[in-house]
Design a protein that fits this description.
It is built from two helices and five strands; from the N terminus they run ββαββαβ. The chain has 94 residues and is of the alpha+beta class. The N and C termini lie far apart (26 Å). The relative contact order is 0.30.
């Protein structure tokens, strides 16, 4: 079910990347705020690392996460999220 790995990073105003804490990823994954079942196929596994199912559209996930993170004040107004799909041989880097 969770065949894809995504790196989730907060990009600050200087352009520096920071792995999103697992607590924030878990908060998004456990909250069905969109009423969209497609996001049920998400599983936070570490800081900056989210496993997702094949039916999860990355562009919709990224937009929904960024919106949620802003509403929870996890992102400053000048920050944004970067969601990158990792290949199976690509390690998570901080």
């Amino acid at each position: 079910m969770f065949l894809r790995k995504l790196r989730i990073e907060r990009i600050d105003a200087t352009g520096a990347a920071h792995l999103c804490p697992i607590a924030q990823l878990d908060n998004f994954a456990m909250r069905n705020f969109t009423n969209d079942a497609v996001f049920d196929d998400t599983l936070p596994i570490a800081d900056g690392l989210l496993e997702v199912g094949t039916r999860v559209p990355i562009n919709r996930l990224s937009a929904a996460m960024q919106d949620w993170f802003r509403r929870k004040s996890y992102l400053a107004p000048t920050d944004h999220l970067r969601v990158t799909e990792l290949s199976s041989s690509h390690p998570l880097r901080s």
